Amino acid sequence: MKILKYFMIVVLLFVLSNISVYSSSSHNHAEWGPSTFGQSENGQWEIENETFTSTTGSGWHRLYKNALYNEDYTVEVDIQWLETGDSEAYPKYGIYAVYYDAGNFVTAFIDNDHGLATYGEVDGVPQDWENGSLPDDYNPSDWNSLKVEKTGHQFRFYLNDEFIIERTFAVDKGQVGLVTEDTAAIFQNIYVNDEKVNHGWGPAWNGDTHGSWEISENLLSTTVGETWDWHRIFQNRMLDTHYSVEADIRLLERGDVSNYNKHGLYAVYQDDDNFVSVWLDKNYNALATYGVVNGEVAGWSNVTLPHDFNHNEFNTLRVEKSGHNFKFFLNGELMKERGFAVDSGQIGLVSEDTAVEFKNIHVVKDTTTVDASLIDLRVNGKTIEGFDSDVFEYTVTLPFDFPRVPSINVQTGSHYTISDTDELPGTSEIQVTSLDGEITNTYKVHFELDAAVEVTDADFRLDRTTFTPGLQINGLLDIHKSNGDIVNPFEVKQFKNPVFEPVLADPSIIKGEDGYYYAYGTEDDWGDGEGLRPVPIVRSLDLINWEFIGHAFEEKPNWKSEGFLWAPDIVHFNDKYYLYYSVSIWHDPSPAIGVAIADHPAGPFEDQGMLFDSNEIGVNNSIDPQLFVDDDGTPYLFWGSWHGIWGIELSEDGLDYVGEKFQIAGTTFEAPYIVKRDGYYYFFGSMDSCCDGANSRYRVGVARSESLKGPYLDKDGNDIIGNGEQGTIILRGSGDTFVGPGHNALITDEVGQDWIVYHAIDKNDPLLPPGATRRPLMIDPLIWEDGWPTVKDQQPSEGWLDAPVTSPNTIKFQTSHPDILTFDREGNIFISEDIGNVQEIDVWAEVTGLYGEKVESEVTTLVLERQNSVIATPINYGNYVGVSDVEVNTVAENGTLTIALNNELENIEEIRFTKEQINSLVDRNVTIHLSKSDIELKIPAVNFEKEEALTITIALIEKNQDVLPSSDLASSSIYLMTLQQGDATISTFTEKVTLSFAITEMTDSNEDLLVYYWNETEAEWKEVGGNYADGNVIASTDHFSIFAVFHPSVFETEDEDDSKDDSDSDNDQDEDKDKDKDDSKNDRDNEESKVDDSKKEKTIDGDATDSDSGKDENTTNHSEGVEGEELPDTATSIYNWLFVGISFILLGYLLIIIKRKSKGLYMN
């Protein structure tokens, strides 16, 4: 049986005001489009004045809101009919009240000739058209309001607030949509539950010309053709002062006016007298910038593009606005910088006589303006009491590319305020120099925040506050300002290793001045058909999302006759980017180290040739270089592999070595990495096999020294210069997933957290297609404890971790039940299957500033959404079945959990529940509904004991007259039923169990059929009772036993025959045989008539009793049939001392029963 699917809609909306956020926001037209559930055709739609307009034509025009609505809601829209098409179709226009797929939907159409038409399909079955009359004053050319109220499966349809018709459709959830057929109509003021859901793009607030735009996954402008025209569309929000906007743009087609073929962005638009724009001009093959300020034209300024620039591919156009300064970028390259005195406005997309596709439209908001202060500026150890500009000058180096360099304003004493900053600069450098050139000091400082991040008037909102166990909700979390403007879709900052695949071995990393992180790796063939990649470069803004951008060299260095480029090391030195690299092959007799220089971390690097080779320097296997610049500015190169780790001083330009080499570690290590922290030099080195696939044993050891040249001691005081010493191991293979971690570098994020960057091997995917070891890029936080670094558990992380802080503020989502509700880095929300009896979960946002300030939003409570009826999917464990925790926990209080054992599960007898599942079922008083093809049971969970697992057995018994008398006359299958908890068998129930038997042997009077149970004590069938309905007999019982359905005549026939024999013997009559039969039949008919009239209780031997006779003193809980009759008792009568003698007879009979059981009474 197919399991019911669960949906949860938790669309997280954050209203965060007066906070500093730096993140990218996608503003594509994602609100409306084709159905997300499979219906792709949506016709043509034009955006006009925040409305949706369908075009005239045969066929359908459909447009859906990209959100899932569930349970109860109201959808409403204003519609104006324009014209009807010329086909013979059925012209109509209206809304999808709910659309799940092509076989499950409900629609409401306005038909000008036939009324308000309603239609739907449920599970692919058409539900017929039903029309309601239009109001007498209805005018299709006016704006008319169409509304549908959905309450469960009930739909009420209104037109202009007048109730028209009500219908029932069994469609639970879906999207809402707009629809026309062979009709042009305008839609506006679209609401769901009083929330306006119109799209976020339209004409400018202060403009009216915008041309024609078609909605699809992207925004698409149409070609104008013979006449010149504009196509402009603007985002409906105001941006101010500092931000950047970018979009990917692709030219589709040029119009017929040859002088005007361009397309681009409005970086800011107030009105036609105040705006700034940037264009890609196909006609002149240029990037063109243009603006108007207070009605005065600021003029065109163009940059010619390369002759091979391809306008027909997606190109990224970006503008950074910092006050009145505008920087224009194309595909990441700064093309132009200009000044325009336009403070604020909208951003927009624009084309002129071109058809263009826009996608990936982003707005990046800079942080709010804050002041920062610099405390105790000192020169030569003395605090400067007043900054005398006649004596000193200063320069400020910031870690980011900011629009303005801060200035130092003198305060009292030694307090200097850094002002005019629009960002949070973090760790910066201030260099103070005396004007006579004799004193120059450089200070690394943290700017202090004058105020923490503010979210005082913000709250944490959700569209719905219910959730379903085991459900994942896809989509980014939106952060909203208090006025409703979207700030950005913010990635939840978590990550999972690896961060880049398939390979980036022996990584080196640096943060560029452009704000990107760049990582470099060993030359490898990635198996993608591109061949060897000499020093591949990847980059990232957040250290967790990386993109390959190219290679370090346009032409691979060839100063060595053969060799691969291994283990590059990147460093910013002498205002340039230096790349030291190894050239070697396996078993190379004289590997070498070279150096290259570039102005930008992305290259291209200009090779400077060989620094030295193994023969020249006198060290075998001279590979794995690292440049370290000491505090006094002296550069040193460290290198080595299995023949000791060595160091040597380099020249000031870093292109030659000077002095003598020195050794710091023994032959155990390769891949040295030196870093200085708190007065110590820390050595990281890798050891053992790096590249043996899943068998790699690479690992990282650490030692430290107070001197750069050593000695380096491990945590136990051992000098690692001794051969065989390993240092203190901080990172090794986990044995489960990742093996061979090593060849590390370090990077520090914006809050001072160190991250170890390394490669490792997934033992389940250890090789690249060409056969080399697959070594993807990994990162983990480096933990400092008592002056020593380590990695958690000394192994690569495998689960989700908080990501590095790479933007001024980060937002982390917290939950009161992290074991149940979790977030991942894409903003997906996961609800655990095992939620136990949790009813509510609190969720809130925690905002962390650059220096660790934390503020929290208000708490929102999520309420568990359970269902009254859940159909479970049985889990086949071979000799028994079970169910999942999520299905158990999804059932509402007093609900029903149905488990069907059909088809291949028909012969399985046991159904098992865990202790935790029983606790959950009992707490919510759930009824377990078990069904096979010929029997069903409904068992209230209140009958079970908590803290014990449960086994329910439903065993089919063979119909065997010798084992169970009369069993061959049963009208149903015969079943043995037991309940087992721990070592105890539950024999009686506090709340009755309902049995339903399918009739397999029909009789002439099925309505007389009853359920019986086998009383082992009296060795006879006892009546339970029951009602016959639709081929089934249903009864209730307060205990389990062997059950079957019989016609009462089965037992009455036997009793009458015995009675006749006794009568013949006692009276010694010699009557005719036929007469005896007639008399017996008449007596039996009379007896049956009495039973039907009085419904008195009977024992199987046919003796009629009064209401007290035959009761079992051992049973105090009496089950009842469906009609309320009481079950017969099962023990010896306590009313007559004569039965004491009979009990001895029964005792003997019990011995016979035991023998019968041993012969196979309970057979499958």
UniProtKB/TrEMBL annotation:
Q: Where is this region: Disordered?
A: 1053-1125
Q: Does the keyword DNA-binding apply?
A: no
- Similarity comment: Belongs to the glycosyl hydrolase 43 family.
Official protein name in the record: LPXTG-motif cell wall anchor domain protein
Q: Tell me which species this is from.
A: Evansella cellulosilytica (strain ATCC 21833 / DSM 2522 / FERM P-1141 / JCM 9156 / N-4) (Bacillus cellulosilyticus)
User: Listed GO molecular functions?
Assistant: hydrolase activity, hydrolyzing O-glycosyl compounds
Q: Which InterPro entries does the UniProt record give?
A: GH43_arabinanases (IPR050727), Glyco_hydro_43 (IPR006710), Glyco_hydro_beta-prop_sf (IPR023296)
List residues traversing the bilayer.
1134-1154
Tell me yes or no: is Membrane among this UniProt entry's keywords.
yes
